[in-house]
Amino acid sequence: MGDLDRILSVLGEVRHRLVRLALVLGPLFGSMLFFELRPISLPFFGTTLPFAIPWPSPFYNVTAQVFRAMERWMLPSGVTLLNVGVGDSIVVQMEVALLLTAMVGMPWVVHEVGTFLVPALRRNERVLLRQVGIPATALFVLGTAIGLFFLTPFTFRLLFRYVAAMGLAPVLGVQAFVTFALVYSLAFGVVFELPVFIYALTRLGVVRAEAWRRHWRGAVLGSLVFGMIVTPDNSGITMLLIALPMVALYFGGTYFAGRWERRADRTSRPRAALGAG
Fold it and tell me: How far is Cα 75 from Cα 70, in angstroms, rounded to an integer?
């Protein structure tokens, strides 16, 4: 098989995987925009259990329900959200629907990406992928949850204290609110992947643990730059709330990478001595 045939084969496989993803994520995205979840009670052995059923509703849909929950949970009392642009409410529903689709459909995305990559990986890389898959997913969910339920509401409350101190009206554009909340929360999910990234590169022999320890100053600077890029506001407070956990996770990943490397060295020495004998 020539190079062109191999490239066409890979592109055909990519198209096949993208179509499979679209067949699942497309209807899921549409359901977020055209259905609401209506609460009902189900009888169960003398008691009732809360439940919800999908109900057609193109305006007050799942995204609107999630948005109202975010507003109640994240914003301090007294803050007024404004629909500044004509289509802001539609854009907000699209953004929330994309987030929900990504969260709910993530197992299917991971399955399709893994199925595409596994044939091209070596045996040790497949083993590593299986070992870090669950921790990586758990860390991403944990980081996003911490950002969504704790740090993002804390950041809003902190920033609006400055608004109150200056005697300004506590108002916020609806699109700015949702963009900040989603980007800031997802940034924590990405940050929590850092230990897995460091550990995986050391396991694969790409970067020694000593290199991670030696370049810690660059990691601190990179964390500050990353925090500056992903935070959509201009205050240094939100940048530090991203950068400080990132630095701590960097050192945590360096520790586990060094521990694995020391254990691997101890295992290889007896084998080398046995081979020499």
Answer: 8
Please answer whether residues 110 and 134 qualify as being in contact, where contact means their C-beta atoms are separated by less than 8 angstroms.
no
**Would you call 273 helix, strand, or coil by DSSP?**
helix
Question: Residues 154, 237: contact at Cβ < 8 Å?
Answer: no
What is the spatial distance between Cα 64 and Cα 69, in angstroms, rounded to a whole number? 9
Burial 149-163 (b: 16+ CB within 10 A, else e): eebbbebbeebbeee
Bridge partner residues of 150 (DSSP): none
Collapsed DSSP state (helix, strand, coil) of residue 52: strand
pLDDT digits (tens, 9 = 90+) for 196-234: 889 888 888 888 888 999 989 999 999 888 888 877 666
Distance CA 69, CA 90 (A): 17
Asked whether the beta carbons of 212 and 254 are under 8 A apart, the reply is yes
Q: Given 3-state DSSP classes, what are the helix, strand and coil percentages for the chain, each rounded to the nearest 5? A: 75, 10, 15
